[in-house]
Amino acid sequence: MAARYVVNVQILRFCAAILVVFAHVGVEIENKARATGQAFTMWHPLDWGLGVDIFFVISGFIMYYLMHDRFGVPGTARLFLMRRLIRIVPLYWICTTLMLASILAAGSMINNNGIDPVHIVASYAFLPWPRADGELFPLLSLGWTLNFEMFFYFVFAVALLLPKRLGLGLLVAAFALLMIVALAVPPTVWPLRFWGNSIIGEFLLGILVAALFLRKTRISRPVSALLVGAGLVLAVLFFQTGSYEYLPRLITGGIPAVLITAAVVLGNPAPDGRVSRFLALGGDASYALYLTHPFTIKIFAAIGVKAGLPLHALYWLGMLATIAGSLAVHLWVEKPIGAALSRRLNAGRARAPV
């Protein structure tokens, strides 16, 4: 990917993570408000989970852009999966282990804290499994999105074994069939209901954006602004009209997300400067921000309430704390681990017989 467009994508990743964090910090402060009898109400013009939809579209874009000319090449699928595992697994396992330790230590202070060995194993394996309250969330509840990510990586790796046209056809057909079957099966067949959620179609939307990018499709700043505006307006309309209750996520989240992503990716590159570089760094740390912010805000909120901070100040300071914490985790934990594992992978490939 041309370096100047990497910045665009990374800035969008940071913004997507901020949307999710914005909501979760608000929920935590609302909980503190109820506990202390203070006034604080989270602002909800749209579903802040739109950040997840944008993440999925970006994921489809990046995977296809990076691998579009590697379909059918021997060894590509295995290398692709190994690199994705190196990127996703270490920090997720660390955070899952922290959550498990928190459940064991805090007990009743943590919601849905039933201990089920099968659920624990499934959480580490990126497999959906009902927790104590029946919901299909892993130990680290926001890890549900990574269950979809890993599923996409696996199916995409299978597609990479084939010639491009056949591989992409298989990918689209498999996801379409899953979405159709999920509508027909009863709730008791929860694995198919989970994997067939229409949200998986957002990865395909990302592949579509990548195909446009590879065809040199570019749009002007006014058109980019129009697409972003349209995406946000649709997101607000879908949420305010309750459309999420009866329309599939592929429509209510996917359409706004693909409009916004296309606007950023196909538009003019972000201007070089300190602000862009900082936002791009935030994009580098977006995975760490997504995984660590629940821990950061709970600790920060508890300390802030004891210190007597006003809840509105606590909210914005909490946002800053989650960003600072994620940058520290990215630079001092995630990045060194990833670099070490990548060196081992590359060394293993170098020693492999020709």
Termini separation comes to: 29 Å
User: Mean pLDDT score, rounded?
Assistant: 93
- Largest β sheet strand count, sense and barrel closure: none
Determine the strand fraction and express it as a percent band: under 5%
Structural class: mainly alpha
State the helical fraction.
Answer: over 70%
Tally of strands: 0
Number of helices: 14
Write down the secondary-structure element order: HHHHHHHHHHHHHH
Shape: globular
List keywords for this structure.
354 residues; globular
Describe the structure concisely.
This protein has 354 residues and is mostly helical. 73% of the residues lie in helices and 0% in strands.
Topology summary:
Blueprint (H helix, E strand, L loop, with lengths): L2 H34 L13 H18 L8 H31 L10 H8 L19 H17 L3 H21 L5 H6 L5 H14 L6 H20 L8 H4 L1 H13 L7 H11 L1 H21 L4 H41 L3
